[in-house]
């Protein structure tokens, strides 16, 4: 037998951080709240995450998003007209498809009667898509919402310089040949230098990698610690991949190319190999390298979120309850990547849980140094007292429950798509490991430079903590 | 048995084979190269060098925000002769030479100010790592104290940053930020300041700096880090060009000419700096060091150096609040009048985090005022002193408005409305109807007595004068005027706000013209008379600038505004009578009538073109002067006489202000005159001028003028007292 739980949906906290809780019914304890709908994760899929500039390089962002949506349709066999709303998260926008959610939905064959919108919130954009979906359902607006995220770094909008754009726009308005010629004549060499997407945080002019290196130094995280964590991520990802645990990955036939069915950034190396790399941002004494950072990635993800009532009525066996979430934000200069430390205790307190109640942790790995810094911050009474107004430290998640199937460092990090991967992974791990509560946390960190060219900075200091739970009951 | 006193300033520990030497003067907020510091350093270096296990060393300061701020000025001031100072310099040179020739590599790890002797110390080391913190500044400010870098600086800097860079640093004394220092080749490596971690940010940053420096030190010792830097093409080109004798000769000449032009020969230090550098470059090391030490000794004994050091020390005093902590901190400031002054005050307030209301009566007014604030900040963005994001955040502290809404939460109101007692009374009453009881009312008037303004107030203890100088964002002085009724807490609050705005503050008593305007008025009256006597504006300017004023008297009148000058002359003339006479006020009034209000109207004594330097004498103004022509008295009309006629009236009035307790002390008198009115810095202010020139001599000169012009040149009693008793000095 099972009871109905009520989901409490409180006001979404300000902007930058969130946390979502998914809980199991057979638990000794329920996180359901009176008069609040239960909201469930029915299914989650993603395209393989590929290093940018590889097999996806000739696509457009909405192609990837379309592939994820089609994968979701296929997995769930949900009638296209049952979906009430579609939300996508993305960071670097392709200007031709600025509402990428709508273009992808139409292309994936969804009814043109389904409204769609796109959200952006740096690396937690798809978390925002999911929590927006939860909001719509909780408010009684919708019963079934598809949320997802996409990022395509193989191609980014590189613009003409502001001067050139101004000249070109004036040219449109020029009436006579003389006016046109004089405008054309005003073009100088300087007009021609292109404008690359911002390489730095807008507010601080600091790149994300630079910030991560400073953060690691502030917490005394050594290069070896970072390399070890990165190696762990790659090794665990490889193991999970080989064992076929990454069930959220769908196969994708890339037009003109082969079928892609695996992530291609997983590359377990050795400590010796990794030690050879030079620092990528702070030279010569920095500790963040290409090997202990997440890499520029192309990929898309999608999840189906429904009210429990509707899901059950349609005969689905949901994977998890989405219980609660929190967004927090802090100083974009010195605490840019510390979101998980601030958000985790908040979401736990809201749910009435403690760190030890959680069976599965999935934290977004922007940089190994950032993860280690967060772990050290969570383990520090001084930090908790000085900066968080707490009596004592948050406490750290045990490593035997932490990112056991790899993470963004190894699987890849398509900025807009990572949030859905984290939540789906928590659900799958809870199922596999037989756990009850799961928690997701992500800082809104930016992209990194691999050893190549463009660097993207993402905007927001943020984090998401989500709690997830797999619902075995439905399998009865 | 001899007791060895424990070391208090310098300590060291071994980290593997690196000796980490930490500096911290427990008796002061900053580290200086004091006798104690030097002695302990020598001792520690002896131990380090004799320890075979030590392969390299790191110098670091554990004092937040300061590496070494310079030499100890008291050490120099204690010397009685130039020979004594020269030998101090030789000792410093020797100590740093030992460091330069150290058998093990030494890394200077710099966080915070690294100035003067501190910089000379750092550049003697083999390698420099600096934090990119805003507090990290490098520089050789000795020239501003009338001295030169006397511990090898004039010899090492040219080799390190090239001849032009070295001249620029030593002749301007400007502060160089870490990133610029790296570009110039002054430091080798930069370290980012860290945010909070497991310790307070600054503490961890210093620790991190040490870790990086230790790594570098090890690297140099085992030859993994190279000390020779690959030079860029431009660098090589510059070296080649500088290798040519005639080119260098031309540089010395150009620099000397420029210095002569700018200092009018009134400041000996720049000349000696050039001499010392030249000696080193052209005649080799030893000659250079000898020249440096000798010149250092000579400079330390000059009256110019004493004057400049006096100003430096005075300025330190005037950057403190001597009135205690105000009961309520001012967080919200309202300014009435969005003119040049009002907007200027707003600019220096918002960028310090004060929530600021800028109120005017017309939309045009606030639009212009807001634009002025925006431009002031945006100019900093263009110079990369501020990010555009920081500019926007700062501007969010500003609200421009036409009404008194939200004045109810203001902690202080500063009025900068038109200088008319009736208007002042009107706004005071309007404001008092809306502000909370604790709110202070400050008047930015330049001459109206505060007690007259306060007469309209229901709470005169909350009324005070805050006299800013234009342009507010550039002029450092703030003259605060208290009446008998102004409460101590009101004064403390005003000083606290002024300090927050970055001002140097003098607090003076109430009276017509307070201190600064009152000193300036007689000098300007004399200037008008001089003009009436047929000395053209250009010659008048030349006479004043060659005396050391940064701006000539005629140009100054144009800058202040002829209308303001006329206003002040008339007001103060009424208050003080014939003593403030001299030139005919009608000259100024006629000019105002014709629209010659000075620079702001494009015409005054001069006609102003678009460019800054583009100005010519206004022929119409000369016509007016001809109309009011006076016959010059040949007995007192030499160039020197004219200079002393101008200066003695200024100085006498300043001394009279002290005599009448408008001024509390000579230090504030000197600071106010130099920072507010441009009194020649090389003279150190009117009071130091009397001390060094001699009161008796000054009185003698004034008597000569008095015979012809009467009471305008009658020395005041206090000046006479000093003349009678030469042992009486304003400054010890």
UniProtKB/TrEMBL annotation, chain A:
Keyword Acetylation in record: yes
The UniProt entry's GO CC annotations, sorted and at most eight, read: endoplasmic reticulum; mitochondrial fatty acid beta-oxidation multienzyme complex; mitochondrial inner membrane; mitochondrial outer membrane
- Using the record's annotation, list all stretches that form the Thiolase C-terminal domain: 316-453
Assigned EC number? 2.3.1.155, 2.3.1.16
* Cited PROSITE patterns: THIOLASE_1 (PS00098), THIOLASE_2 (PS00737)
| Protein species of origin | Myripristis murdjan
Give the quaternary structure.
Heterotetramer of 2 alpha/HADHA and 2 beta/HADHB subunits; forms the mitochondrial trifunctional enzyme. Also purified as higher order heterooligomers including a 4 alpha/HADHA and 4 beta/HADHB heterooligomer which physiological significance remains unclear. The mitochondrial trifunctional enzyme interacts with MTLN. Interacts with RSAD2/viperin.
Where is each Thiolase N-terminal domain found?
39-309
**Taxonomy, superkingdom:** Eukaryota
According to its UniProt record, which reaction does this protein catalyse? tetradecanoyl-CoA + acetyl-CoA = 3-oxohexadecanoyl-CoA + CoA; an acyl-CoA + acetyl-CoA = a 3-oxoacyl-CoA + CoA; dodecanoyl-CoA + acetyl-CoA = 3-oxotetradecanoyl-CoA + CoA; butanoyl-CoA + acetyl-CoA = 3-oxohexanoyl-CoA + CoA
- Name listed for the protein in its UniProt record: Trifunctional enzyme subunit beta, mitochondrial
UniProtKB/TrEMBL annotation, chain B:
* Protein name, as recorded: Trifunctional enzyme subunit alpha, mitochondrial
The chain positions of domain 3-hydroxyacyl-CoA dehydrogenase NAD binding read 332-510
Q: Name one Pfam family in it.
A: 3HCDH_N
Q: What is the lineage of its organism?
A: Eukaryota, Metazoa, Chordata, Craniata, Vertebrata
Q: What positions constitute the catalytic site? A: 479
Q: Name one GO biological process term.
A: fatty acid beta-oxidation
Please name the pathway: Lipid metabolism; fatty acid beta-oxidation
Q: Name one GO molecular function term.
A: transferase activity
Coiled-coil regions in this chain?
none
Extract the InterPro entries matched here.
Answer: 3-OHacyl-CoA_DH_CS (IPR006180), 3-OHacyl-CoA_DH_NAD-bd (IPR006176), 3HC_DH_C (IPR006108), 6-PGluconate_DH-like_C_sf (IPR008927), ClpP/crotonase-like_dom_sf (IPR029045), Enoyl-CoA_hyd/isom_CS (IPR018376), Enoyl-CoA_hydra/iso (IPR001753), Fa_ox_alpha_mit (IPR012803)
Which of UniProt's keywords are assigned here?
A: Acetylation, Fatty acid metabolism, Lipid metabolism, Lyase, Membrane, Methylation, Mitochondrion, Mitochondrion inner membrane, Multifunctional enzyme, NAD, Oxidoreductase, Phosphoprotein, Transferase, Transit peptide
Q: Where in the cell is it found?
A: Mitochondrion inner membrane
Describe the protein's quaternary organization and the partners it interacts with.
Heterotetramer of 2 alpha/HADHA and 2 beta/HADHB subunits; forms the mitochondrial trifunctional enzyme. Also purified as higher order heterooligomers including a 4 alpha/HADHA and 4 beta/HADHB heterooligomer which physiological significance remains unclear. The mitochondrial trifunctional enzyme interacts with MTLN.
The Swiss-Prot or TrEMBL record describes its family as follows: In the central section; belongs to the 3-hydroxyacyl-CoA dehydrogenase family.
Residues annotated as site: Important for hydroxyacyl-coenzyme A dehydrogenase activity? 467
According to UniProt, where does the site described as Important for long-chain enoyl-CoA hydratase activity lie? 120, 142
Reactions catalysed, semicolon-separated, are: (3S)-hydroxyoctanoyl-CoA + NAD(+) = 3-oxooctanoyl-CoA + NADH + H(+); 1'-[1,2-di-(9Z,12Z-octadecadienoyl)-sn-glycero-3-phospho]-3'-[1-(9Z,12Z-octadecadienoyl)-sn-glycero-3-phospho]-glycerol + hexadecanoyl-CoA = 1'-[1,2-di-(9Z,12Z-octadecadienoyl)-sn-glycero-3-phospho]-3'-[1-(9Z,12Z-octadecadienoyl)-2-hexadecanoyl-sn-glycero-3-phospho]-glycerol + CoA; (3S)-hydroxytetradecanoyl-CoA + NAD(+) = 3-oxotetradecanoyl-CoA + NADH + H(+); 1'-[1,2-di-(9Z,12Z-octadecadienoyl)-sn-glycero-3-phospho]-3'-[1-(9Z,12Z-octadecadienoyl)-sn-glycero-3-phospho]-glycerol + (9Z)-octadecenoyl-CoA = 1'-[1,2-di-(9Z,12Z-octadecadienoyl)-sn-glycero-3-phospho]-3'-[1-(9Z,12Z-octadecadienoyl)-2-(9Z-octadecenoyl)-sn-glycero-3-phospho]-glycerol + CoA
Output a single Gene Ontology CC term carried by this record.
mitochondrial fatty acid beta-oxidation multienzyme complex
Which organism encodes this protein? Myripristis murdjan (pinecone soldierfish)
Q: Which intervals hold domain 3-hydroxyacyl-CoA dehydrogenase C-terminal?
A: 513-608
Write the gene name.
Answer: HADHA
| E.C. code | 1.1.1.211, 4.2.1.17
């Amino acid at each position: 037998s099972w009871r109905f739980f009520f989901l409490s949906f409180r006001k979404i906290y300000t902007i930058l951080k969130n946390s979502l809780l998914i809980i199991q019914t057979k638990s000794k304890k329920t996180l359901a709240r009176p008069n609040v709908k239960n909201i469930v994760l029915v299914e989650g899929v993603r395209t393989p995450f590929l290093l940018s500039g590889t097999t996806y390089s000739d696509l457009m962002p909405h192609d990837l998003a379309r592939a994820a949506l089609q994968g979701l349709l296929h997995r769930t066999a949900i009638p296209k007209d049952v979906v009430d709303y579609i939300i996508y998260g993305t960071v670097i926008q392709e200007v031709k498809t600025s509402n990428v959610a709508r273009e992808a939905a139409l292309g994936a064959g969804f009814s043109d009667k389904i409204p769609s919108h796109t959200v952006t919130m740096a690396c937690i954009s798809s978390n925002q898509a999911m929590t927006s979906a939860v909001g719509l359902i909780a408010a009684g607006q919708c019963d079934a919402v598809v949320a997802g995220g996409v990022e395509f770094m193989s191609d980014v909008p590189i613009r003409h310089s502001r001067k050139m754009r101004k000249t070109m726009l004036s040219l449109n308005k020029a009436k006579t040949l003389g006016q046109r010629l004089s405008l054309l004549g005003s073009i100088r060499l300087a007009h021609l230098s292109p404008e690359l997407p911002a390489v730095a945080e807008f507010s601080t002019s600091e790149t994300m990698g630079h910030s991560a290196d400073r953060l690691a130094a502030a917490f005394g995280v050594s290069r070896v610690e970072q390399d070890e964590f990165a190696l762990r991520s790659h090794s665990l990802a490889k193991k999970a991949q080989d064992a076929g645990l990454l069930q959220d990955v769908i196969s994708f036939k890339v037009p003109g190319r082969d079928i892609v069915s695996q992530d291609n950034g997983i590359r377990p190396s050795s400590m010796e190999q990794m030690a050879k790399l030079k620092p990528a941002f702070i030279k010569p004494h920095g500790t963040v390298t290409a090997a202990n950072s997440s890499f520029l990635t192309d990929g898309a993800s999608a999840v189906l979120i429904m009210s429990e009532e509707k899901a059950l009525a349609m005969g689905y066996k949901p994977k998890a309850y989405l219980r609660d979430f929190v967004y927090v934000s802090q100083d974009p200069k010195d605490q840019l990547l510390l979101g998980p430390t601030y958000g985790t205790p908040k979401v736990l307190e809201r749910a009435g849980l403690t760190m030890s109640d959680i069976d599965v942790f999935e934290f977004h790995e922007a940089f190994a140094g950032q993860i280690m810094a967060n772990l050290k911050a969570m383990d520090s009474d001084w930090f908790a007292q000085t900066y968080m107004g707490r009596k004592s430290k948050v406490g750290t998640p045990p490593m035997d429950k932490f990112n056991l199937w790899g993470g963004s460092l190894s699987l890849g990090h398509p900025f807009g798509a990572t949030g859905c991967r984290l939540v789906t992974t928590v659900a799958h791990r809870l199922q596999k490991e037989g756990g009850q509560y799961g928690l997701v946390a992500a800082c809104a960190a930016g992209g990194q430079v691999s050893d190549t060219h463009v660097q993207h900075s993402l905007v927001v200091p943020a984090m998401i903590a989500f709690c997830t739970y797999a619902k075995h009951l439905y399998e009865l | 048995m001899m007791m060895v006193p424990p070391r208090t300033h310098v300590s060291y520990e071994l980290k593997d084979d690196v000796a980490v030497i930490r500096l911290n003067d427990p008796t002061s907020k900053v580290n200086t190269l004091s006798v104690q510091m030097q002695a302990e350093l020598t001792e520690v270096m002896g131990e380090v060098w004799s320890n075979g296990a030590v392969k390299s060393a790191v110098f670091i300061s554990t004092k937040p925000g300061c590496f070494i701020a310079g030499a100890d000025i008291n050490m120099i001031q204690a010397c009685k002769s130039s020979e004594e100072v020269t030998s101090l310099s030789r000792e410093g040179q020797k100590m740093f030479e030992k460091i330069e020739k150290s058998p093990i590599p030494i890394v200077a790890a710099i966080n915070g100010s690294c100035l003067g002797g501190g910089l000379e110390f750092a550049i003697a080391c083999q390698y420099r790592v600096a934090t990119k913190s805003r507090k990290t500044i490098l520089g050789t400010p000795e020239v501003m104290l009338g001295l030169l870098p006397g511990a090898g600086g004039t010899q090492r800097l040219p080799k390190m940053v090239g001849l032009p860079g070295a001249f620029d640093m030593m002749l301007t004394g400007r502060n160089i930020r870490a990133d610029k220092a790296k570009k110039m080749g002054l430091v080798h490596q930069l370290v980012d300041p860290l945010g909070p971690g497991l310790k307070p940010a600054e503490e961890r940053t210093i620790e991190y700096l040490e870790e990086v420096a230790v790594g570098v030190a090890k690297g140099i010792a085992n030859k993994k880090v190279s000390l020779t830097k690959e030079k860029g093409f431009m660098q090589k080109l510059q070296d080649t060009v500088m290798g040519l004798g005639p080119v260098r000769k031309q540089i010395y000449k150009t620099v000397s000419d420029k210095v002569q032009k700018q200092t009018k020969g009134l400041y000996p230090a720049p000349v000696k700096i050039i001499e010392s550098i030249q000696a080193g470059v052209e005649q080799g090391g030893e000659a250079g060091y000898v020249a440096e030490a000798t010149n250092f000794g000579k400079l330390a004994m000059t009256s110019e150096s004493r004057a400049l050091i006096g100003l430096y020390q005075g300025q330190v005093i005037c950057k403190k609040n001597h009135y205690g902590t105000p009961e309520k901190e001012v967080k919200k400031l309202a300014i009435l009048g969005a003119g040049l002054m009002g907007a200027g005050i707003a600019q220096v307030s918002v960028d310090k985090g004060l929530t600021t209301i800028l109120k005017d009566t017309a939309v045009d007014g606030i639009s212009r005022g807001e634009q002025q604030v925006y431009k002031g900040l945006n100019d900093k963005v263009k110079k990369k002193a501020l990010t555009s994001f920081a500019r926007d955040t700062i501007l969010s502290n500003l609200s421009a408005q036409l009404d008194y809404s939200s004045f109810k939460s203001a902690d202080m109101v500063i009025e900068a409305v038109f200088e008319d007692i009736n208007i002042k009374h009107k706004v005071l009453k309007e404001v008092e109807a809306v502000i909370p009881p604790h709110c202070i009312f400050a008047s930015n008037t330049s001459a109206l007595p505060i007690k007259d303004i306060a007469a309209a107030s229901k709470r005169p203890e909350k009324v005070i004068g805050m006299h800013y100088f234009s342009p507010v964002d550039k002029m450092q002085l703030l003259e605060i005027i208290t009446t008998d009724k102004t409460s101590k807490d009101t004064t403390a609050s005003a000083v606290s706000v002024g300090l927050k705005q970055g001002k140097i503050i003098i607090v003076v008593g109430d009276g017509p013209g307070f201190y600064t305007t009152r000193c300036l008025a007689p000098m300007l009256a004399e200037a008008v008379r001089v003009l009436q006597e047929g000395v053209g504006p250009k010659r008048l300017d030349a006479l004043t600038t060659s005396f050391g004023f940064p701006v000539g008297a005629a140009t100054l009148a144009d800058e202040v505004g002829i209308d303001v000058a006329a206003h002040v002359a008339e007001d103060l003339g009424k208050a003080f009578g014939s003593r403030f006479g001299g030139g005919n006020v009608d000259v100024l009034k006629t000019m105002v009538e014709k629209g010659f209000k000075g620079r702001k109207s494009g015409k005054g004594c001069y006609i102003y073109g678009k460019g800054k330097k583009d100005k010519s004498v206004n022929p119409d103004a000369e016509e007016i002067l001809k109309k009011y022509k006076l016959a010059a008295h040949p007995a007192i009309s030499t160039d020197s006489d004219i200079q002393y006629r101008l200066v003695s009236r200024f100085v006498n009035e300043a001394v009279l202000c002290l005599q009448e307790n408008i001024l509390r002390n000579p230090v504030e008198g000197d600071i106010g005159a130099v920072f507010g009115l441009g009194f020649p810095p090389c003279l150190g202010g009117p009071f130091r001028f009397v001390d060094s020139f001699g009161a008796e001599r000054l009185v003698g000169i004034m008597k000569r003028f008095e015979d012809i012009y009467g009471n305008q040149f009658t020395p005041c009693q206090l000046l006479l007292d000093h003349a009678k008793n030469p042992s009486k000095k304003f400054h010890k």
